[in-house]
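Entry:
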Amino acid sequence: MPVHPSATLVLPLLPPRSLAVALPVFFATGSARTAIGLSFASGLAEPAGVLGLLLAVRVVAPTAAGMGALLASVAGIMAAISVLELLPQAVAHTGRVQAAAAALGGGVVMAAVLEAIHASGIGV
């Protein structure tokens, strides 16, 4: 049975996402039950987001222009979260130089992954 290309992009991210939620909760509360429960609840948010996206694509973005607006909106949200939340936290925990190096390194890794996907013919 062939695997959809998007599944190959999402499946490797699931364990790190679960750990990213579970470990801080466990160390903050000391409760494995709370950590697992919140990790599970966090995991349910992703399918709910997919259902919302399907609705948005069918209702809001049935045209190329609508899809472009939807994608630009998501890009804006991701950029805002990165600049306003994630980067200041990284600077607070590691300092400016290490945070900048990590941000640059993350950008390089993502560019390489996207280029590999594009070159393989999986992506558009």
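The chain has five helices and no strands.
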